[in-house]
Q: What sequence folds into this?
């Protein structure tokens, strides 16, 4: 009887394992293993981020881990930081050609491929994190992104967002627009072109190259992300003036790109796993940055003597005028960029009107209760 009970119990456990699609033996040992009969794939993810860098680097690691765990180990993703397999700015080509399977990065790095790509990360005076999510997921952005990226044999997903980024670090105070002229400032994407229009010199550098450039004097100022990531790089040691608000990346959406040939080979279940992992990573990134930026800002000011300064009004006005001109030129460049811009602009107009009577109005009212 005992033997029969054990046999029946074992059968019930086995049936449950098959129903749930898990390898219970591996899970019991704290491991993840592929379900019997499911093909196993080893995937290479290249990134544009320094290894294990808080937020950005760990966001890529987290996305890879989610794919592996959600697939029961059938899809195992190995992550390569910038420079380990290819350089940061070579990640797109590596995935496009099939040399790597996925990338985690920022779409505005690929502006040399198409001027439409930056809209899916951030443009100056553009969408906040929630607004770009709304456009991407429900406002037609994803369909246009798919169309653009498919030309390069890539299937894209949103897989992170840093939220609002600050204006950057400067060695000398910026009192007026005149102080911007001639400065060498690290800023990629459309924001870099806007800086050039107001007399600064924009420099595109990968994250791991910024501190040395600031230290050596190769650049006079830099933006990176926000307090959390900026603290990790130690920019405060080289530049004490930290400017707000940032207008170049009000809600920087980060991405996963999957080689399209690989994507088309995947089963519906495998595609759903990758898409779901990216969505989960996107959600957690917004929460994570919301928390750690607030913590790091306090540290920068109270422990490191950083001086927060508001960007002068004439600088903001000049940047706004330059942004209008640059975006108009981009929209006139080619059909796909024009359609992306028109869709983006229409979605932003709707979001602005809603935001005016919701978030903006509420933030102003809240100060009466919770004021600094």
A:
């Amino acid at each position: 009887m005992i033997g029969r009970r054990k046999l029946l119990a074992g059968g019930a456990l086995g049936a449950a394992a098959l129903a749930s699609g898990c390898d219970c033996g591996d899970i019991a040992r704290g491991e993840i293993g592929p379900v019997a009969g499911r093909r196993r794939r080893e995937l290479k993810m290249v990134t544009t981020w320094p290894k294990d860098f808080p937020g950005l680097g760990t966001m890529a690691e987290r996305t890879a881990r989610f794919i592996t765990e959600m697939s029961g180990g059938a899809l195992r993703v190995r992550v390569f930081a910038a420079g380990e397999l290819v350089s940061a700015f070579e990640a797109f080509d590596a995935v496009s050609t099939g040399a790597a399977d996925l990338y985690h990065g920022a779409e505005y790095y690929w502006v040399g491929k198409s001027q439409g790509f930056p809209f899916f990360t951030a443009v100056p005076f553009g969408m906040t994190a929630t607004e770009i999510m709304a456009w991407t997921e429900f406002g037609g952005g994803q369909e246009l992104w798919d169309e653009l990226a498919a030309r390069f044999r890539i299937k894209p997903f949103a897989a992170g967002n840093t939220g609002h980024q600050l204006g950057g670090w400067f060695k000398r105070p910026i009192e007026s627009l005149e102080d911007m002229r001639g400065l060498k400032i690290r800023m990629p994407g459309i924001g870099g072109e806007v800086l050039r229009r107001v007399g600064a010199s924009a420099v595109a550098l990968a994250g791991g190259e910024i501190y040395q450039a600031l230290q050596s004097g190769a650049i006079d100022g830099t933006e990176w992300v926000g307090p959390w990531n900026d603290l990790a790089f130690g920019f405060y040691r080289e530049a004490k003036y930290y400017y707000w608000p940032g207008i170049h990346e009000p809600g920087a959406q980060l991405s996963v790109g999957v080689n399209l040939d690989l994507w088309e080979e995947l089963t519906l279940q495998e595609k759903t796993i990758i898409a779901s992992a990216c969505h989960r990573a996107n959600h957690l990134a917004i929460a994570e940055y919301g928390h750690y930026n607030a913590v790091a800002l306090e540290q920068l000011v109270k422990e490191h003597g950083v001086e927060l300064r508001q960007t002068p009004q004439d600088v903001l006005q000049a940047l706004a005028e330059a942004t209008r001109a640059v975006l108009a030129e981009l929209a006139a460049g080619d059909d796909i960029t024009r359609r992306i811009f028109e869709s983006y602009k229409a979605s932003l107009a709707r979001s602005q009107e809603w935001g005016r009577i919701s978030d903006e109005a509420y933030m102003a009212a809240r100060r009466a209760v919770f004021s600094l």
Summary: The two ends are 72 Å apart (CA to CA). The chain has a mean pLDDT of 90. The first strand starts at residue 41 and ends at 47.
